[in-house]
Amino acid sequence: TTEAAIQKLSEEIESVTKLPSGNIKVCIGHLALEGSLSVGDEIADQLNELYVASEMFNWFDYVWMGHIHHPQVIQHQNPYIAHIGSLDRSDFSRTEMDADKIAILLDPDAENKFQTLTLPTRYLRHVKIDVPPGKNSTEFTINELCLISKVLPFKDSIVRIEIRLGGPD
Predict the structure, then answer these.
(1) Which pTM value belongs to this model?
(2) Residue 163: pLDDT above 90?
């Protein structure tokens, strides 16, 4: 059950609290945090998903989770809890196409213990072309792609092209 899974996880995390204090305590995992917002297809079954309460991580200084594709901070301090997100754009939803992807650089000796680094990811381009009836579909599509590429650069991008034919040809 969800309750049994959360209990087991809580016991595992509690065992970590026996580590010596004084060092920075960091938890990294692949769980969905309560209060996080999913943006795409990362959660296939909402009813069976484990959403973990941030209180479970109170013993840590910093908590970064994956699973949710869009980076988001759940709690700013005591402890700092966030979803780091995926490292690359993974679907053509508007939220995912425009989101910056990040990595965390942790330096326990620095004044600000961590930095958020923006990753150089490829853009996703979704192009929809409607070919009118009576037009040569190949010729029309090539012309449309040439026009679109002048305002929406395709270089170093992942491009999805959706072509709809308006006639039987």
Answers:
(1) 0.70
(2) yes
